[in-house]
Amino acid sequence: MGVIAVIKGNAKVDRRTKNLVKRLKAGDIAVIYHRDLDEVSAEALVKARVKAVINADRSISGRYPNEGPKILVENGIKLFDGVGEEVFCKIKDGDQLVIDEEEIICNDVPIGKGTILDMEKIENLMEESYKNLDRELDRFIENTLEYAKKEKEFFIKKVKFPKPVINLSKRHVLVVVRGKDFKEDLNALHAYIDEMRPVLIGVDGGGDALLENGYIPDIIVGDMDSVSDKCLKSCKQIIVHAYPDGRAPGLQRVRELGLEADVVPMPGTSEDIALLMAYEMGADLIVALGTHSNMIDFLEKGRKGMASTFLVRLKVGSKLVDAKGVNKLYRSGVKTSYILGIALSALLPITVIFLMSPPMQQFLNIIRLRLKLILGI
């Protein structure tokens, strides 16, 4: 493996990676507690340009093949894995960290060690994870069916939603979630958004994704844990996702900002609420961007089953279009050869018409006569 250079930097600590990335600055060392580091979190850490990541938990537990650690290492970020609860609790925001080989030194005091995950170790762990995938999927299906039996009443009956401040009936509705490839997919949908003017619903941080692309979200739906104050203040309506018993922790934050919000108590995820609301309010078409759509997405969510998502998609399926991966349709761009081909095709009839015109015929005759005189023909 070779000698690992000494890494120095300021610590930023949080048990929730999605909260931590908001506070990170270039050159920081991120200290997380994140089992099975997912792609979206890893990409956010890369974007923050951290020097290294110290994970108190296992970045790849072996339950399923998660790509997060690979993304970090491919981008030159050192990952120190499994340092444990004790080491995690000793590090505070702003502490000076030094990582020498696998030893972690905090404010000049050695506090523990972590395992360096290089690409070889990651590939070995991923190979083992693929072997466990069948068993994990069986467990996931059993849990999903169990939850589906408990939650079906919420989705079979018509759910009562607060009246939207903007009419969704017979409109296109774009639901944006900060999921895999959400940035690239949103960029690829600019033409669609500008032409069709869909109602824009941001699910928590999905609202900020819209703002970053120059669009103001019409509605924000979520538990308010990953959306910015700026986004909440700019949207037309806020819908707080509450537990089925009515508890809504996110409501306090909205009120502290001096804003009003509607509350929807429901099981499942906030994206489920957004999709179901669009359907119940008569949307003509629902475009889902960044939402959970495949097996790994569901396993990364971390719930014991995603029954609500399964049930919601069954209900709204006739109106739902998933935009995941749409950017890959346009990745190759327009080739220069295509442009030249189109240009030549357009010029050919123009050239023929030009050459057949009387003035041009006279000009060509003059040229022909001059050539004959010069050549003595």
Automatic annotation (TrEMBL):
Thiamin pyrophosphokinase catalytic domain segment(s): 198-238
GO biological process per UniProt: thiamine diphosphate biosynthetic process
SUPFAM superfamilies (UniProt xref): Thiamin pyrophosphokinase, catalytic domain
Molecular function in Gene Ontology: ATP binding; kinase activity; thiamine diphosphokinase activity
Residues of the SteA-like C-terminal domain: 324-374
Sorted UniProt keywords: ATP-binding, Kinase, Membrane, Nucleotide-binding, Transferase, Transmembrane, Transmembrane helix
Transmembrane segments: 338-356
InterPro entries for this protein: Put_SteA-like (IPR047795), SteA-like_C (IPR022215), TPK_catalytic (IPR007371), TPK_catalytic_sf (IPR036759)
Source organism, top-level taxon: Bacteria
Protein name as catalogued: Uncharacterized protein
Organism of derivation: Calorimonas adulescens
Organism classification: Bacteria, Bacillati, Bacillota, Clostridia, Thermoanaerobacterales
